[in-house]
Each structure stands twice: as C-alpha cells, then as structure tokens.
Amino acid sequence: MRNTKAFKEAVADTLAELARRGVTVRPGTVADTIERNIRAVATRLGIQERSAWRYFDPAGLAASIAQQRQAAEDGSASGQVGRAPMPPVDNPELALILGGVPDALEESGGDLYSVIVNVAVNAWMAGHIHGEDGCTGCQDKRPAGTDWQARMATITAMQPDFTKWFNREVWTAALNDTGYGVTRR
Fold this sequence. Notes:
This protein is mainly α and 185 residues long. Helices cover 61% and strands 0% of the residues. The chain is built from eight helices and no strands. The radius of gyration is 23 Å and the shape is elongated.
C-alpha cells in the first residue's frame, strides 16, 4: 500500500493540510495513521483497500489530528503538553541514567539504538526497583535485598554530584566530549 501513488499523495496532502493549520506531525506518524484508516475502512465495508481510497479525506484527517492535539493541550497544564512528569532534581536514579548516556554513546561507537535501549531498560528497572518492596517475584532475588531506600543510598554514593546532570548545558558538553552529537538533518 505504501508504495502506491495514492498513498504518497494522501500523506503529502494530509501533511500540507496540517501545515496550513499550524500543526507539525512526523510524516511516518501520518503514514501509519492513513494506513490504519484505509485498512479499517476496507475491513468494515468488506471492500478491497484500493477501493477504500474513495472514502479518504486528507482535510478531514488533518482536522481530526489537529483537534486531538488541541484537546491534549487544553487538558494539560501550561508548558507541560507532551512532557512526562519529572522526578525531583535530586533523584539519584534519574541522574545516574542521564549521566550514563554520554558514556554509553562513546562505548557503543555512536550506536544511538543501543543507547536508547540502555536508557529504556535502566528507566524500567528504576521504576521496578522503586516498587520492589511489594513485588513478590523479586523477594530475595537481589543481594542487597529489595529495600528502595538502601538502593537510593547506593546509587547516591555512586553519583554524588547528581544535580549536575539536570543541567542541559553540562549534559550536552559531556555528550560533545564523546565526539558524538545529535544534529537535525
């Protein structure tokens, strides 16, 4: 479906409608949405996907996406749209994860995928460890036990200057020291 002229035009038309409305959405997200919609219409109507294109309206899809975006903005606190809640600045686990990114990037030879996987696993573990005291599957599995306060004390000892990693300039400088950086194409 994605290699057809109709699909490419649908993505381009929808992106143009979104731009006219002042809404920026990643092209891949729009393509995924269009593909899902066309398949859903074809399935519900019992027709082939190529016949479902007659029901596609790029302006309607763009209006729907813009409306969803506006609803998210209206339902969120000012300046917090699209942002996850942040732990306190003195959270040692988050500082350890942030501080490990430049090192992981350098150690992996610039493999951003492995760095993201490393961050995701560490973030998942941090959340799991926080709730471990009540996790029956984790009882007696760790040498240090499941005491969250003890875990925080250990991590804090490993990373005594944890507040520095919450400074964007310090983190970016550490990233640039690895010889790698993130630039927009």
